[in-house]
Amino acid sequence: MFSLILITCLTLLVLFVRQRYSYWRVRGVPSVKPWFPFGNLWGVGRKKHLAQVLLDCYEKLNGSGPFGGVHFFLGPVVVALELDFVKNVLVKDFNHFHDRSLYYNEKDDPLTAHLFLIEGSKWKNLRNKLTPTFTSGKMKLMFPIVRDVGEQLEACLLKELPANGEIEIKDILARYTTDVIGICAFGLDAGSLKDPESEFRVMGRQVFEIHPLLFVKLLLCQEFKKLARAMRVTVLNPKVANFFLKTFEQNVEYRENNKIIRNDFMSLLIKLKNNESIDESTSTGLGKMTMNEIAAQAFVFFFAGFETSSTLMSFCLYELACNQEVQDKARANILETLERHGSFSYEAIHDMKYLENCINETLRKYPPAANIFRQTTIDYNVPGTKFTIEKGTPVMVPIYAIHHDAEHYPNPEVFDPDRFDPEQVAKRHPFAFLPFGEGPRICIGMRFAMMQSRVGLAVLLRKFRFRLGSTMAGPLRLDPSSLILASVQGMVLKLEEL
Fold this sequence. Notes:
51% of the residues lie in helices and 8% in strands. By secondary structure, the chain is an alpha+beta fold. It is globular, with a radius of gyration of 23 Å.
């Protein structure tokens, strides 16, 4: 009897899996063959980064239509192929794709309920509240803070540089961005450049520590979001979450009791908490924000800002170390611009056009957010086709794959900042370059990320020459388990003081 039940259950399981894995085939959508139980995610986290797996799928499907199909575990997922379809998803038909479909738990894991993850009307309301905090005018007010930390970065390198000149530059840059965002988002001197084991730096590292069990937990929460919320599953390290929440609450209380107002993100969040006007455009009347809500925004500002910007800068310096002529040109652009402006000013760093080209080319080759996630919120009839993407179907825009498509960028593995000269940009489809996304859910902190990256790179390149360290021989290999793109070898560079 038991054997009969077991055989019946196994037969039903096999039939169910076959039915799920035939989803795209029966609809006539080009797809990549999945394998149980991971679908098309075999190797992710162990052998390949998700960006590389999706690049493989993209290359197999490219040219077969506006989109193709893959499976994450048993679930069907759309992979965008044509740039006009990408434009429809991110901008033109945004009302069908306004949610990211990523897991968060507002009740049990409040710091995950931030602008990047929340959905629907809550997202729209919060975006309206936060948009005025990231204008170019607000960035200009925060610039002196970033510049001061940039000067500390230079002093730190001069102090810590060993006799052989080789140093793990990624860690130094992460300490720089930790200090920048610690001051701007939490109102605190994180002290990471002075002490690499400062509490902020230790907690920042722990945010990105993804061990195998946690990686599987994240994937399962993503696949079974409703069940995970019902079971009160949290994904943040409780120690890390408690540290950031407590630190933020203490500093809000201190500023309010002492009536301290500064030109930083913390002061803007306090205004939102109290439903005060940020500027004349304003977010007044949108309702007060709770302490947990503003703490979540400070957390994502820290979480998204320190690691992505330090990653961008380290990859850029790596490429400049590999391409000395490009490095010389970037340094000349920095020095000439500073001499012309007479000071290290907000206007000066935005006038460093070749440096900006280098940053953009780095973002092309190594986009920190390698994929954009969306979910179909309403049945969507794909223009020009007979296909309908059903409500609830995840949509992936494979940024890394698009940025490495030779049709858009000939010789995509070559680092060539001239690709971003205005005349070259004008020749490309506007959606061929999406390091910060596009449309209403474009990265709200884009201006800040670019500002702190410009400052960090300008400070370093005017003072040092960068060459590859002794451990960096051979091609760069991506860490398969990292949430964002990172090098398995680390980022050891040799510095020569100029």
